[in-house]
Sequence to fold (505 residues):
Amino acid sequence: MAFSPITDLVNWRLSSRIPRLQAMRDAPLAAQDQVFRMLMTAAAQTDYGKAHGLTATTTYAEFAAAVPIVNYDKVYPWIERSMRGEANVLWPGVTKWFAKSSGTTAAKSKFIPVSHESLEDNHFKVGRDLLAFYAEQVPDSQLYDGLSLRLGGSSKINELNEHSYYGDLSAIMIDNLPMWASWRSTPSHDVALMDEWEAKIEKIAQQVARQNVTSLFGVPSWMLVLLRRVLEIRGETTLEAVWPNLELFVHGGVAYTPYEASFAAILPAATRRLETYNASEGFFAVQDALDANGMLLMLDHGIFYEFIPVADFNGSESRAIPLAEVELGVSYAVVLNTNGGLWRTIVGDTVEFTSVAPYRIRITGRTRLFINAFGEELMIDNAERAIAEACRKTGALVDEYTAAPWWAPAGEAGGGHDWLVEFQTPPYSLDAFGQALDTALKSANSDYEAKRYKDMVLRPPRIHSAPLGTFHNWLKSKGKLGGQNKVPRLMNDRSLIDELLVSGF
Fold:
């Protein structure tokens, strides 16, 4: 085992977190009960809590009966009051920070309150715990002998007024980064907070190309853009020659599966991967074991979770259930109660539990991103896996894609799906790619398979190849380069795909 004094010291400090984490895994409902009680004590001190009759002793049944499930639009008037500097609106005290989130499905920006408690007891705490899980599994790690490359969003910190500030969550976190995290991080603070995304990518690439990078943190789609530029600068084809000590890639924000082959071609073979699930609203789950099927729901980190079965989802009219009632193999919409001051708020993601002992999840999609034009109920998870399988069978590498339904002309029945795909490496045949995609979708989704029977309702997918840069240019045109911004994978209407096909970005 290599002697690594810096990493050994950090790992020794991180090891003290493991007993608490094990207790959370062993007694998850007790952990959630404790969080719920803390949240009720806080809510009782707020205008929102008082408006709904909440006290420190409110039970879950009373809470569920008194507080409505809401989407962002319903809670925004309360957030707006907080943004003006009012105290004790959604969370005790004055909330100084607001994470600007463009969202995946909405055109307008959202402003998510980020309290001191949500930064310290959720975002940063989960980050520490993720590293503790890694240290426990990799005792011979040399992670902290090098630098951690963190690729955040593209927004600087902006002053809303004399009371509050907003920016990408990543920018807020960088601006508040504790010493333990900033100590071994790259790029530099000023570069990390650059606002212009393309200039920022270039600056980061130039800065890190000759550093000793041992870990990567970021969204796969944007990280791939950066790594390809680093390889260009160094004149190499793989990162083995650039960063020989690279050992860990922590990723989230979008599914890794469509990019897996692209990363496999450039990452050192020994690089380990850990998936995370975080958003402006909170840091929810991490892969607690290298071989885990799913991510561990972090249950003593300031968030009380509720879930709505997707089959019963009806927006704010839905009935939510607590963690104790979830079942394996069911897709749920996530409802949050957070130490940032969100109460029974629909986050927009859908998840499925892969384990209930401990509680592990995988992300299956978004509540508003799917295709169900013909009863096929196609979710993002189905699409990601099918795209990966089609790539595997045809030798393709996909950078981005989107899909939408098309309908047969009047007088004809049925229709199908158009897939606009940007290939880094094209398949040997678009027809073969489409056939492989179709077969994989049938295997993954019985509703899709039924609608495809003899082409009676749903016809074979139509594949359109997009020029390289199409989706990047579209995001740029919307001012959405970088960070958590992403291309909507599935749309139940043709607004996006027609814009891309007609405009030719």
